[in-house]
Amino acid sequence: MEKQSITIYDVAKKAGVSMATVSRVVNGNPNVKPGTRKKVLDVIDELDYRPNAVARGLASKKTTTVGVIIPDVTNVYFSSLARGIDDVATTMISVCTLQIIQQNIPQLI
Prior knowledge:
- By secondary structure, the protein is mainly alpha-helical.
- 50% of the residues lie in helices and 11% in strands.
- Helix 5 links the parallel strand 1 (65-70) and strand 2.
- The N and C termini lie far apart (51 Å).
């Protein structure tokens, strides 16, 4: 059975606050009373809420997703390159998506 994703709306309902308040807490906005912030953070921990990177990208019209397309994962050069990109993306709080192409690509001369 698949676990249902917890949304910002679930956190808001359980904490008894608006979705905007939860958003402010998650984004570190200082305009939230300390008691309210603690209540929201407690609910976030209790529900194990994790913000959805895709939803955040759609809402902000910015994305932290890095796409990588490589022709051959067994080639040490490409696998090392992909690993390095993923390492940097992870430290920058990005999501890295890897796609491996299975068809022949003409050699660039």
